[in-house]
Design goal:
nucleotide-binding, five-stranded parallel sheet, ATP-binding, Rossmann fold, Sigma-54-dependent Fis family transcriptional regulator, Helicase, Ruva Protein, domain 3, phosphoprotein, 18 strands, about 45% helix, three-stranded parallel sheet, 4 domains
Length: about 450
């Protein structure tokens, strides 16, 4: 915390200490630079006016670090030009005096979540880059995909990634990001189907203070806050037609017009779109704009379903088991040969995501380090499965076709989405509703392919 007024430093220290944060405050730029020279700073909150220096000096010192912390600037002179300059220099956001305590608390929470996401991206890059070909697959079709990833990664062209649900579209989008010159910058996945039209535009393009109820301050959208990184528009086929028109102009002009603003702001981020829909069919049906389709479809990267990736199932299963063995502290975990043969024969309607969940379940529940066929669901073993039929209350009658794993996964997913809806999209509150820690909640979102919803809109709540 950097402020030349002692009273403000003490006030903010007390406020943030109550939220459980470890806070160190300093009076000026020199002391801030000395503090930043040490490791362990995740977030800097600095007043814009600091006597002989300014918050921009602190921002530049923070951005010069190898692993820069997020920076939030406080100013009593919240002009659009100051905001644009701060965002261009790499600030996460800024807040105007006088500010509401809840407004600052949510801003700090959001900034730290972005910091955590960036650290996770860095870890993922370190783990996946050396063997990313293994993680994606080594079948002939996936080698073609990987070859195309290598070609498109260095450029800035818009890429459209298509494929069935669970085929790994986000993984490939991350590979494009990490193999190019944007790897040191944020990768921000965003689910276009998760929000209504107004909130969707605010999250993508930003908004000015007072643009709508609850807009307590000006905020940059994802396209601007990603800096020189990458924004992944997942489920782009679900985007409302009115927003499609605006997105088309944004991609053509490389500028966004925040909601409620009369001026445009340039952005540098690369855009990767993804969908499990056939956009050509959506265009013919009038549900997707043809001009936007051609703008997104500069380079198309189609992911095959797992059933068409000969030899990849065993490879991916072994990869996922290796990761689970590390997480569980069981280095001896391995598949029996007949188990891998069964996995290769199964069609996997849920694709790679279903395989990953299946391996996780087998590794977690098995008492033996050797995972035999009995650790797989009945459908994979070629056995018939019971179906739940109406029976006595509290005692379901089981019949042919029932799949307990799928039933439990579907139920968990419904509860996750219901909690998100009741919490107004604020994930910390959704986690509380389910009695989960935020980290556990994030893990379950990732398990069900909902990681693209990690950057939720910040709402103050009642």
């Amino acid at each position: 915390m950097v402020d030349d007024e002692l009273s403000m430093r003490e006030y903010l220290e007390l406020l943030l200490h109550r939220e459980g944060y470890v806070v160190t405050s300093v009076p000026g730029v020199k002391a801030a630079c000395e503090l930043l020279s040490r490791d362990g700073v995740d977030l800097v909150i600095s007043d814009m006016k600091l006597g002989t220096g300014s918050g921009l000096d602190v921002l530049r010192a923070a951005r010069a670090r190898k692993e820069p912390p997020e920076v939030v600037l406080i100013t009593a002179f919240g002009t659009p030009s100051a905001a644009v300059e701060a965002m261009r220099e790499g600030a996460y956001d800024y807040i105007c005096k006088p500010f509401d305590n809840e407004e600052l608390r949510l801003l700090v929470q959001k900034a730290l979540e972005k910091r955590l996401l960036r650290q996770e991206n860095t870890t993922l890059r370190a783990r996946l880059l050396p063997g990313l070909g293994v993680a994606v697959g080594q079948s002939t079709r996936m080698q073609g995909v990987w070859s195309l990833v290598e070609k498109v990664a260095p450029g800035r062209s818009t890429v459209l990634v298509t494929g069935e649900s669970g085929t790994g579209k986000e993984l490939v989008a991350r590979a494009i990001h990490m193999r190019g010159n944007r790897a040191a910058h944020p990768f921000l996945p965003f689910n276009c189907a998760a929000l209504n039209e107004g909130t969707l535009e605010s999250e993508l393009f930003g908004h000015v203070k007072g643009a709508f109820t609850g807009a307590l301050q000006e905020r940059a959208g994802l396209l601007v806050s990603a800096g020189e990184g990458t924004v992944m528009l997942d489920e782009v086929g679900e985007m409302p037609l009115a927003t499609q028109v605006k997105l088309l102009r944004v991609l053509q002009e490389r500028k966004v017009k925040p909601v409620g603003s009369a001026s445009e702001v340039p952005f540098q981020a690369r855009v990767i779109a993804a969908t499990n829909r056939r956009l050509e069919a959506e265009v013919k049906a009038g549900r997707f704009r043809e001009d936007l389709f051609y703008r997104l479809n500069v380079i198309t990267l189609e992911l095959p379903p797992l059933r068409e990736r000969t030899g990849d199932t065993s490879l991916l299963a072994s990869h996922f088991l290796s990761r689970m063995a590390e997480e569980l502290g069981r280095p001896g975990l391995r598949f029996a040969p007949e188990t891998l043969e069964m996995l290769e024969r199964y069609s996997f309607p849920g694709n790679v995501r279903q395989l990953q969940n299946m391996v996780e379940r087998a590794a977690t529940l098995s008492d033996s380090d050797l995972l035999g066929p009995s650790t797989l669901p009945p459908a994979v073993r070629g056995e018939t499965e019971p179906v739940v039929r109406p029976g006595e209350p509290g005692e379901p009658q089981l019949g042919v076709g029932f799949n307990l794993e799928r039933h439990l996964d579907d139920s968990e997913r419904r509860y996750l989405l219901a909690a998100l809806k009741q919490a107004g999209g604020v994930k910390t509150r959704a986690a509380d509703l389910l009695g989960l820690s935020f980290r556990s909640f994030r893990y379950r979102l990732a398990k069900h392919g909902l990681t693209d919803e990690l950057d939720e809109p910040v709402r103050s709540g009642g």
